[in-house]
Amino acid sequence: MIKRTAVIILLVAMIAGTALVEASTGNRQIEVAYRDISILVNGNQISSDAEPFIFDGRTFVPIRFISEALGKNVTWDQSKYEVRIADPLALNEEFSGKTLFVSKDSQLFSVVLEGNPTTGYSWEVKDFDQNLLEIEGEPIYTTQSPTNVVGAGGKFTFSFLTQGKAGEATLDFIYLRPWESVPPLKEFTLKVKILEPEGKISFSEQDSGSAVYVIMPLNELEISLPGNLSAGYSWVIQSCDGAILKIEGEPTFKAESELLGAPGVFNFKFIPVSPGQTPLKLIYVKAGESGPPEKEFSLLVGVF
Known about the structure:
By secondary structure, this protein is mostly beta strands. Helices cover 2% and strands 52% of the residues. It has three domains: 2-86, no CATH class; 89-195, Immunoglobulin-like; 199-303, Immunoglobulin-like, CATH 2.60.40.2020. It has one helix at residues 63-69; strands spanning 2-8, 19-22, 28-34, 39-41, 44-46, 53-55, 58-60, 73-77, 82-86, 89-91, 98-103, 108-115, 122-125, 133-135, 140-143, 154-162, 167-176, 186-195, 199-203, 210-214, 219-227, 233-239, 245-247, 252-255, 264-272, 276-286, 295-303. The longest helix has 7 residues, at 63-69.
């Protein structure tokens, strides 16, 4: 056993679902023990740049490293001295052809695709820009049958981690039998826009159906949608969990010209208020009418 003196800020967290860890400022000098502690995840040993240690009968491990190894997202709020741990966004086949907006700073996300390996088929991901994204381990297959019925289908889960660089990457997946020289049975494509961690994230009508990571308190969302207020139409919020994401002020409308009846753009601003995930849906409706909306706009929002 090796004893050393260290000056640290102690953090303790329960890594399950969404968690918050608060740290107070100030230094404390303590004596800790290093014993070549091994860390295993699902039976596989993993290593970290920060060495685990023992203090006061407890084993301390690097919280970001352990959380990410368990498939969690980790963010640090400097303004509140808060560590946030949450489940990553999991995007299914409904997001094929859509876009994910995500911070460049070590953010995890998953792509979950249905398949059945007992038929010889499997999902594969084609080459992508590994300077921007890293695949985390091998894809994981889980059966959808509660009784493990032979031949039952399931889901393939691929996990990716941003690599600290802004840019755009495309993930192309194909579902095929590897030994067959025929076109794939199914395909899935996801465009990934990797952003600087701070600032406003803007969306237009073309971004409907996308997913976005929002980091508190660094980001806000701005949505700009075309419409014509003079014709009696307006965009309204149909669904959004206000405990996670709330609108800032009232939506605004700006006509494209001073002509009577001119169309224009509706603008909505949203700010994150607590960690979690929520669908955000806006609909374009005419006042006094109860029929289906003329248009819809939707996002899947993950707040971290």
